[in-house]
């Protein structure tokens, strides 16, 4: 099926459409102004002719009234005059004018007189080429003055002007179309360069930035915005790649350990302490499953894009009390009733991660406090974290060297999960110096 003209038009390139639209608008404007110009010119020229013809007729009438008409009547601008007596006879004429047949018969004369304006008359029956403008005036003693002026020349001039416009206008339109085509092409060149740059990125993955034009215009800001976006995407991709490689790295050591234990055991099955082997393998398997769970938790947080899984009213004090109960060495100092909106399971995981860290690093005690304004603190008296590392430890897979050397150390995902969960709940988390030790401070918005 053939496309409708509208669909065809939409399929054309921007350059073509802009050029055609500009040319069409110009053509319309020029045609309109040419026709207005010609008609105004025509009107003005005819008015001038009418006025001077009437002037001549009046001069003749004055002479006729005074009885001083000469024969032939003299006029200076080629006006043809006939003076017709009351009985219809032509008494006086200008040189060369018809003495027998009046230009207008009596009925026509009366009509023109009644209207008070000049009228057109075909000159050919009177051997005058082209049309005439005729003015009729009434003089004394029933005489009528008929004055006529050929206007063929005016019409020839107007015709010439019309022909010039007819040829000139299309030429002007073609000129403008060519100029628009070139100018639009030049304007679109940076966009073409952007497109080529984008294609380059897609095909070669070599250059990761689009060419930015020198001009400070819309295309320039588009290119910079797109480049910013590309930089962010690249950053996200790098983060993702680092995450995958870190995760693979973390998976490798428990898997290698399991493999080694099993290989050793199978190599010497007789003297092997199987329950011991199973215990070792189980420990590594637990590490693996914790890692998988943490990765899954982070993936879910990423997926939700900063929104908690649920938004239910949660009695945070209950969650805190139940969690702290599971840790023998932890003490709950303050526990005001606090109501927050969110996911109870995720919030308890926040506290669990903080307490795991505190218990792992503390020297003697861990103190947990929850105040009525939604501030939850977990304080230990361990080695603490140097100030310049206190932000860094929130990154995924970030463990400090001391943490790395410990056997019981995790993968470095605990604090990352804490930060993202707290953020999803609209809160903040930071680490402070508890001298000695570390204090983790979580601030959650309280719902009333
Ligand atoms: N209470 C603390 N005292 C001293 N250092 C800490 C404390 N909490 C965390 N850290 C340091 O911050 C690092 C990151 O902590 P995070 O909880 O993110 O990971 P992790 O505990 O090592 O592993 P995971 O929590 O995944 O089992 C730890 O490796 C440790 O070096
Ligand atoms: Mg931890």
Automatic annotation (TrEMBL):
- GO molecular-function term, one example from the UniProt record: phosphorelay sensor kinase activity
Transmembrane in keyword set:
yes
Q: Where is the HAMP domain positioned along the sequence?
A: 185-238
Q: Which residues form the Histidine kinase domain?
A: 246-448
Its chief place of residence is membrane
The record's InterPro entries line, in alphabetical order, gives:
HAMP_dom (IPR003660), HATPase_C_sf (IPR036890), HATPase_dom (IPR003594), His_kinase_dom (IPR005467), HisK_dim/P_dom (IPR003661), HisK_dim/P_sf (IPR036097), Sig_transdc_His_kin-like_C (IPR004358), TCS_sensor_his_kinase (IPR050428)
**Coiled-coil blocks:** 219-246
| Localization per Swiss-Prot or TrEMBL | Cell membrane
TM region positions: 164-184
Q: Name one Pfam family in it.
A: HisKA
For this protein, the Enzyme Commission number is: 2.7.13.3
Please provide one cellular component term from the Gene Ontology annotations of this protein: plasma membrane
Q: Which reaction does it catalyse?
A: ATP + protein L-histidine = ADP + protein N-phospho-L-histidine
What's in the keyword line of the UniProt record?
Coiled coil, Kinase, Membrane, Phosphoprotein, Transferase, Transmembrane, Transmembrane helix, Two-component regulatory system
Broadest EC class?
A: transferase
Which top-rank group of organisms is this from? Answer: Bacteria
CDD domains in UniProt = HAMP (cd06225), HisKA (cd00082)
Q: What is this protein called?
A: histidine kinase
């Amino acid at each position: 099926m053939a496309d409708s003209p509208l669909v065809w038009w939409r399929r054309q390139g921007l350059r073509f459409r802009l050029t055609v639209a500009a040319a069409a608008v110009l053509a319309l404007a020029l045609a309109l102004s040419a026709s207005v110009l010609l008609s105004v010119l025509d009107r003005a020229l005819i008015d001038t002719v009418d006025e001077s013809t009437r002037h001549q007729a009046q001069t003749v009438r004055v002479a006729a009234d005074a009885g001083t008409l000469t024969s032939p009547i003299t006029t200076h601008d080629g006006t043809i005059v006939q003076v017709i007596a009351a009985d219809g006879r032509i008494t006086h004429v200008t040189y060369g004018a018809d003495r027998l047949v009046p230009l207008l018969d009596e009925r026509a004369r009366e009509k023109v007189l009644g209207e008070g304006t000049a009228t057109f008359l075909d000159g050919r029956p009177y051997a005058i080429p082209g049309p005439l403008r005729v003015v009729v005036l009434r003089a004394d003693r029933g005489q009528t003055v008929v004055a006529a002026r050929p206007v063929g020349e005016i019409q020839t001039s107007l015709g010439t002007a019309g022909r010039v416009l007819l040829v000139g206008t299309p030429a002007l339109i073609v000129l403008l179309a060519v100029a628009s085509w070139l100018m639009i092409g030049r304007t679109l060149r940076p966009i073409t360069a952007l497109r080529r740059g984008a294609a380059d990125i897609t095909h070669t993955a070599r250059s990761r930035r689009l060419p930015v034009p020198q001009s400070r215009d819309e295309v320039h800001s588009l290119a910079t915005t797109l480049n910013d976006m590309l930089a962010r995407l690249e950053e996200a991709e790098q983060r993702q790649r680092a995450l995958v490689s870190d995760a693979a790295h973390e998976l490798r050591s428990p898997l290698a350990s399991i493999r080694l234990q099993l290989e050793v055991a199978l190599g010497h099955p007789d003297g092997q302490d199987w329950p011991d082997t199973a215990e070792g393998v189980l420990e590594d398997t637990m590490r693996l499953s914790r890692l998988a769970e943490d990765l899954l938790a982070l993936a879910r947080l990423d997926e939700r894009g900063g929104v908690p899984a649920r938004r239910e009213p949660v009695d945070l004090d209950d969650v805190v009390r139940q969690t702290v109960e599971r840790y023998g060495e932890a003490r709950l100092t303050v526990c005001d009733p606090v109501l927050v909106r969110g996911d109870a399971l995720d919030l308890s995981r926040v506290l669990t991660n903080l307490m795991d860290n505190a218990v792992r690093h503390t020297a003697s005690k861990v103190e947990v406090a929850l105040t009525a304004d939604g501030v939850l603190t977990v304080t230990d008296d361990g080695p603490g974290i140097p100030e310049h590392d206190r932000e860094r430890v929130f990154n995924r897979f970030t463990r400090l060297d001391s943490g790395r050397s410990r056997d019981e150390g995790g993968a470095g995902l605990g604090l990352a999960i804490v930060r993202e969960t707290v953020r999803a709940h609209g809160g903040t988390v930071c680490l402070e110096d508890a001298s000695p030790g570390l204090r983790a401070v979580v601030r959650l918005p309280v719902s009333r």
